[in-house]
Write a structure and sequence with these properties.
single chain, alpha+beta, 5-stranded mixed beta sheet, about 15% strand, extended, disordered C terminus, Reverse transcriptase domain-containing protein, RT_dom
């Protein structure tokens, strides 16, 4: 019985968030945790860590609902050559395409220029205004793009270190790395 009550409350809350395009401030708080990069780097060096921000399970649920509502619109707008961060696709296929292009260019004695991006490194940083413009251009259902704009506007992070939390600070250009919306929209 209690499980059903929690489900009902969460359903009402999430539906209200979508309907009003308003996000409660307590859902805009993430926990920033330092993550050791490894690779032989010294643990004493602060540069050996990168911050990840873990956001609420409710926020993750809202993003999954958004993605399921807009999956076909996103898929139609996305380049057919995009393989990373795409359901049902494999980066191995992208590697095969590049290999075939190289072989063909070599056979025809043509130059080939290939630009690659390390998505894991670029993933955390997003130009928010550009992201929301792209979401709007993609005909994202209803006011969903406005919802995410409201969500990211006053995003706050508190850093957790050795069990203690810092005061909250506003996120600027970085986006929380535990959220996956960006990879599905751009």
């Amino acid at each position: 019985m209690e499980d059903q009550t929690v489900v009902n409350i969460l359903t009402k809350l999430i539906n209200l968030i979508f309907k009003t395009v308003a996000v409660p401030n307590n859902l805009k708080i993430g926990i920033g945790c330092p993550l050791f990069k490894n690779g032989g780097k010294p643990k004493e060096d602060p540069n050996s860590y990168r911050r990840i921000t873990i956001t609420s399970a409710i926020g993750k649920t809202i993003e999954k609902l958004h993605l399921s509502r807009n999956k076909s619109s996103i898929k139609n707008q996305q380049s057919r050559l995009q393989k990373g961060f795409t359901e049902g696709e494999s980066p191995t296929v992208a590697g095969l395409v590049v290999t075939e292009l190289r072989i063909e260019a070599k056979r025809k004695r043509l130059p080939i220029y290939i630009g690659l991006t390390d998505a894991k490194k670029a993933f955390d940083i997003v130009w928010h205004a550009g992201l929301f413009r792209e979401m709007h251009k993609m005909n994202i259902s209803g006011d969903n793009w406005l919802l995410f704009r409201a969500w990211y506007e006053d995003l706050t992070t508190k850093v957790k270190w050795e069990g203690n939390f810092s005061r909250g600070f506003k996120e600027k250009t970085r986006r929380p790395s535990r959220r996956c919306l960006v990879s599905n929209c751009v």
